[in-house]
Each structure stands twice: as C-alpha cells, then as structure tokens.
C-alpha cells in the first residue's frame, strides 16, 4: 500500500477511534462472545441429541449412497447463484456514502482501498462457508458416527473454499455491468440445472468438468462420510485451483469500477439498512428492482390502446407485466407447482394449505402496479376513479393472466391424459374464480401500502406480545385470506374423489363457498379508502 | 407523483385514455411532448428524469385530458423558459376554448395576458382583488413591489 493511502487510512481510523465510546467496543465484544458461546453450546447440544436419537443411523445408507452428494451439490450451487445475484446490486465490496464522498473522492489509488474491502469480503465468504460446514459436520457426525477429523476437515474446507470463490466472483460481477447482466440472464438456466441435479441423482459429485466447483466441494465430504468417491483428491485440487484463479482475477481487477457505481451501491446500502431495520421487505425488493432495471434499461413497448376508458388501468397493468416478464414466470412456477401438488396429493390437508399459500405468493407477483399505487396514493389523483374502484381495476389484468395460465395448464394435463372428463370440466370452470380469489387476497394485503416507520412505532408501543402479533398479522393477512377463500372448497372437492355419487353435491358446496368468499373480498376491496 | 414502471409517454396515454380522450390520444400526447420538449424523453422512466423533467411530465398529464376548470399552484417553478412559454400558450388556448384557470404564482409576467382577474395575498390575508390590470397597476401592488 502506498504511503499516502496508509497515512490517510490511519488518520480515518484514529478519528473513528477517538469518537467511539468505550462502551461501544465492549458491547461489540459482548455481542460476538454471546453469539460464539450460544453457537458452540447449541452445536454441542444438537450433536448430543442427534447422537442419542433412537432413529440414529436410519439415513446413513441414503446419505452415503448419493443423497448427501445430491443435497449438498444443489445447496451449494443455489448458494453460489444467490451470492452472484446479490452482487448484481450490492456485493462483497460496498462502501458507505461518506467513504465514497471523502475517501474515494481523494487522490488515492482506488484499487488499494477496494482491496481492503475485498479482503474482508473474502474472509466473510470463508466465514459463512465455515459456519455452514460446521452445521453439516454436526448433522453428519451425529448421524453417521464416522471418523470425526477427516469429516470436520472436509465439511469446513469445501464450503469455505466455495465461500471465498463466491466473494471473488461476486466482485467480478460487481465491477462489470455486462457480467451482472449475464448472471441475471443465466439464473433460470442455473435453476434448471439445479432441478435436474436434484431429480437426476448424485451424478454431480464427480470430477466431470460440468459438475463445477459446487460439485468438487462436495466430493471430499462424501468420501469422508463413507461414500464411494475415489476422485475426491482431484476434485479438491481443481477446487483449490479455481478459487486461487478467481481470487487473483478479483485482486487484479480491484480498481476497475466507477465512482458512480460505488456511489449508487452506497446509496442502496443505506436504504437497504433502513428497510431491514423497519422490517420492510418491499422496500428491499424495490431497491433491488431499481438497480436491476438500470442494468437492463427500459424495454420499449407499444400496446394497442383499449376502446373503453374503463380498460385504461388494465392496459397500463399489461404494459407493466410485459416490462417485467420475470413476474409472470414466477407466478407460473409458483401457481403451477401448487395446482400440481393439490392434484397429485389429494387428502393431505397440510400440503393443500401450503399449496394455497405458495399460489398466493405467485398471484402476489402479478399485482405490482396495485402495490405501486398504494405506495403513493397521490398519483391516482390524475385518474377519474374512487380508490376502491381503482383497486378492482388493477386486479383485472392479474386475474386474466392467472386464468389464462390455469386454462393452459389444465388443457395440457388433459392432453397428457392426466385429467379425466368430469375433473377436466370442473378444473376449467374453477380457473377464473380461483384466480380471482388469489389475486384479490393479494390485493387485500397489497392495498395497505408499505410497512413504514409509523406502523413499526405502533407495534413497538404494543408490548412484546402485542407488537409481535401486530407484525405477524401484517404479514399473515394475505395468506390467511387466501386460505379462508380456497382451502375449504379444495378440501371438499378432494373429499369427493372416489365417491362419484357425492361429487355433484361437493362441487355445488365448494362453488357456493368460493362465490361467497369472492363476494366478500370484492365488496371489501371496493369499500377501501387510500392509505394515509 | 409519477408511477415508477411507466414511461413519460405512457403516463400521458394513461391519463388521456382514463378520461375518455379516445382516438385522438396519440396526436394529443405527441403535441404535449413536443411543447414541453419531452419528445426525446418519451421512453424514459421517471427514475431516469431530472426534477424539472418530472415536473413537466406532471404538468403534461394535467393538460392532456379535457378540462373545464384547472387549478395550478406555482406551475412555472422549476420550468425552463421555453417550457414556461409553452405552458402559457396551452393555457391561453384552453381559456379561449372556455376553460376556467385558477393559478397561484409569484411570477406576474407569466400571468400577464392570461389572467382576467387577480387576487393579492399578503401575510395570509387578501389585500387586493379585481380586474388583473387594475390590481397590478394599483397602489397596493406598487407598495408590495409587485410591478
């Protein structure tokens, strides 16, 4: 490090130290000590509990026969993808706004300042990997009872190396908008690879070139756990080589980032901290969306104007969805998966409830324009509708989109011979009301606006239990409304499977309940006033 | 206030469609974009615009729909001179078509030629009112330094 950089950083450290109260340092030490102590005690107790469990060893054959390789490989691949996606809008090197303004604005070598942060990011990556590896070690050692030291070494070193790799690649993504765009575009492919690896078995834990570092990190672990993995030394070497190469590349590229990019990320970091402090996940999502939107630019779209003024809002919502096709994709995956779950596993109430909640999350992807309206109700003053009517208009496009997905899925299943005649008619008829119930449930939650500071303050004065319940109710309202509207009709219909004589009565009962729920939801939405 | 997911052009189209402008939407939107110097920014999202551009977009949204009465609070603050002139022309045309315009402003030259009547507010109280010329040329306006 140059003399100027060292002197400046020393000056900043001294000033910070001078302003730091002794109590702050003590609090930080106490916090770290407490976390460390509780982690160690928790790990030991968990280890003992698992070791003395009467079912101990029950999964050992599955684990060593490929299960461990499958779970660990897919988990590490998804973890690496998550880290790289995070680097598209934050990443391992993020300065604070004052640091960007004063420190990076000074005539000091930027690469040197970045390398300090990058080193911290690499250490953090290693730390996260080690923590995950420790959890894996505790679980595996308790279950398998193999030699502890080789297993501990493999469980720690593989994930640690992958954590370092994630941080190094994260910086490469952070410093290059083109790479960031490539990561976002490749994400669906990676998810598909993860799904194939999951469904296809443990083939990833080999030295095949395509198994990648996430597979190479797992090989030694499988070998230490007693599985058959003769190629693990080669995998370990390959992993070490690729980690070193990535760290070297990141180190050499340390200075190649613009001040504007660092400033943008610093601003996002400040907003991210505020949103997390206030428990506002929507604030986080909006910030991420803004940064990612900036990477891709604006999609030019022209959609034919509607013939009637009441269709202006659905037209505008269709434009918004076309501009963010990822939302439609997520809705398709979540709602399609839920419908399939309900269809193939009848009679399992808990699974059906889970499927309704997941479908609700899918529908919520489509109501972004409504949520945007609730975020800034003043914008709607340009439009000639009451707030309640405006909310209902905002649900038209999502309901039609979800219905179209449902119809397409139902017809596909019928063509594959998976839906018999009577069930096909019922499924087709249910698409529109089920879509409306899901979208209106999401609208009931979304029309409240963001969980802002005023609501956090309200929760904070309600006491520990009251405040917690207030926040739980805030987040659970939408899923609960969807469950009330859809779960009982689904269970009634599932109960009639195999009883042809009662199927008409069951369908009538289910339809009556659903229509009643829809009437209540629609009337409630229409009666709403703009949030304060 | 503008929607973060709609471009400048789409904002104007939405407001025009919602107010039943019908077939003439494109022409009306293009005219307003050109008048306010927003044509090159028509496909920009609000997050990509400067504060002045956003204000012009909001003004254009207010003017793209048919109206009989329009209330404008300091409409020229933050507007560049060509846009001020464009706004003046649009309001004058609307007035000649029979619309009523109520505007508050600290910039009397903008109201000249547009206003028929004027009200002078000073420290929260109405101190003069009447025909625009007589109020602006009156003693109170002179004492307050409005001329």
What would you say this structure looks like, in words?
- The complex is a heterodimer of chains A (532) and B (147).
- With 532 residues, chain A is mainly α.
- Chain A is built from 22 helices and no strands.
- In chain A, helix 19 (421-446) runs antiparallel to helix 21 (463-495) and helix 20 (453-460) packs across helix 21.
- The mean pLDDT of chain A is 87.
- Chain B has 147 residues and is an alpha+beta fold.
- Chain B has one domain (8-115): P-loop containing nucleotide triphosphate hydrolases (Rossmann fold, 3-Layer(aba) Sandwich), CATH 3.40.50.
- Chain B has helices spanning 8-18, 25-35, 51-64, 81-96, 108-111, 132-137, 139-143, and strands spanning 69-73, 100-104, 117-122, 125-131.
- In chain B, helix 4 links the parallel strand 1 and strand 2 (100-104).
- The model of chain B has no long low-confidence stretch (mean pLDDT 89).
- Classes of the chains: A mainly alpha (532), B alpha+beta (147).
- The interface between A and B is medium-sized, with 29 and 23 residues.
What's the layout of helices and strands?
The complex is a heterodimer of chains A (532) and B (147).
Chain A: H1 3-19, H2 22-51, H3 60-87, H4 97-103, H5 110-144, H6 148-174, H7 177-200, H8 212-216, H9 219-224, H10 232-252, H11 259-277, H12 281-296, H13 312-323, H14 325-344, H15 349-364, H16 368-375, H17 387-394, H18 396-415, H19 421-446, H20 453-460, H21 463-495, H22 503-526
Chain B: H1 8-18, H2 25-35, H3 51-64, E1 69-73, H4 81-96, E2 100-104, H5 108-111, E3 117-122, E4 125-131, H6 132-137, H7 139-143
Parallel strand pairs in B: 1-2
Antiparallel strand pairs in B: 3-4
């Amino acid at each position: 490090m140059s003399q100027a950089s060292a002197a400046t950083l020393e000056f900043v450290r001294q000033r910070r130290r001078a302003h730091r109260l002794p109590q702050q340092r003590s609090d930080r030490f106490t916090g770290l000590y407490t976390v460390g102590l509780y982690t160690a005690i928790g790990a030991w107790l968990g280890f003992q509990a698992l070791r003395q469990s009467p079912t101990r060893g029950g999964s050992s054959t599955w684990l060593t026969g490929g299960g461990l390789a499958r779970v660990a490989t897919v988990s590490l691949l998804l973890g690496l993808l998550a880290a790289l996606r995070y680097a598209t809008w934050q990443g391992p090197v993020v300065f604070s706004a004052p640091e960007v303004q004063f420190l990076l604005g000074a005539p000091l070598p930027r690469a040197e300042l970045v390398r300090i942060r990058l080193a911290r990011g690499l250490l953090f990556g290693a730390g996260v990997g080690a923590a995950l590896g420790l959890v894996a070690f505790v679980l595996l050692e308790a279950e398998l009872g193999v030699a502890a030291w080789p297993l501990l070494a493999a469980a720690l070193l593989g994930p640690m190396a992958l954590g370092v790799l994630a941080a190094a690649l994260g910086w490469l993504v952070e410093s290059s908008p083109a790479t960031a765009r490539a990561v976002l575009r490749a994400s669906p492919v990676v998810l598909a690879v993860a799904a194939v690896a999951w469904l296809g078995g443990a083939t990833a834990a080999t030295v095949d070139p395509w198994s990648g570092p996430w597979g190479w990190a797992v090989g030694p672990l499988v070998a230490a756990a007693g599985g058959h993995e003769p190629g693990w030394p080669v995998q370990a070497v390959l992993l070490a080589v690729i980690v070193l190469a990535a760290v070297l590349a990141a180190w050499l590229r340390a200075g190649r980032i613009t001040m504007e990019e660092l400033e943008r990320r610093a601003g996002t970091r400040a907003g991210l901290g505020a949103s997390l402090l206030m428990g506002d996940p929507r604030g986080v999502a909006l910030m991420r969306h803004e940064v990612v939107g900036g990477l891709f630019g604006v999609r030019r779209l022209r959609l034919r104007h509607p013939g009637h003024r009441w269709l202006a809002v659905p037209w505008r919502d269709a434009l918004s969805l076309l501009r963010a096709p990822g939302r439609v994709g997520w809705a398709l995956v979540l709602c399609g998966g839920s419908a399939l779950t309900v269809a193939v596993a009848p009679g399992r109430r808990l699974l059906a409830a889970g499927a309704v909640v997941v479908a609700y999350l899918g529908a919520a992807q489509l109501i972004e324009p409504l949520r945007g309206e609730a975020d800034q109700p003043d914008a709607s003053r340009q439009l000639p509708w009451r707030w309640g009517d405006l909310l209902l208009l905002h649900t038209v496009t999502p309901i039609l989109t979800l219905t179209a997905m449902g119809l397409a899925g139902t017809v596909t299943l019928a063509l594959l011979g998976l839906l018999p005649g009577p069930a096909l008619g019922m499924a087709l008829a249910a698409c529109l009301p089920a879509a409306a119930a899901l979208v209106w449930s999401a609208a009931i939650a979304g029309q409240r606006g963001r969980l802002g500071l005023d609501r956090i303050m309200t929760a904070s004065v309600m006491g520990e239990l009251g405040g917690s319940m207030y926040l739980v109710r805030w987040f659970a309202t939408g899923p609960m409304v969807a469950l009330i509207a859809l779960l009982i009709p689904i269970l009634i219909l599932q109960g009639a499977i195999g009883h042809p004589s009662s199927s008409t009565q069951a369908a009538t009962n289910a339809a009556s309940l659903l229509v009643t729920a829809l009437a209540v939801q629609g009337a409630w939405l229409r009666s709403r006033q703009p949030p304060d | 206030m503008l929607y973060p997911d709609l471009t400048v052009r789409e904002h104007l189209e939405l407001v025009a469609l919602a107010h039943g402008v019908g077939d003439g939407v494109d022409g009306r939107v293009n005219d307003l974009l050109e008048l306010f110097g927003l044509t090159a920014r028509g496909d920009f999202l609000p997050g990509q615009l400067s504060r002045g551009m956003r204000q012009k977009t909001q003004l254009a949204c207010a003017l793209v729909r048919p109206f009989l009465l329009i209330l404008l609070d300091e409409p020229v603050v933050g507007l560049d001179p060509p846009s001020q002139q464009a706004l003046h022309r649009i309001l004058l045309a609307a007035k000649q078509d029979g619309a009523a315009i109520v505007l508050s402003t600290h910039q009397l030259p903008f109201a000249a030629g547009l206003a028929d009547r004027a009200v002078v507010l000073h420290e929260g109280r109405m101190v003069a009112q009447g025909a625009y010329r007589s109020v602006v040329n009156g003693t109170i306006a002179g004492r307050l330094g409005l001329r």
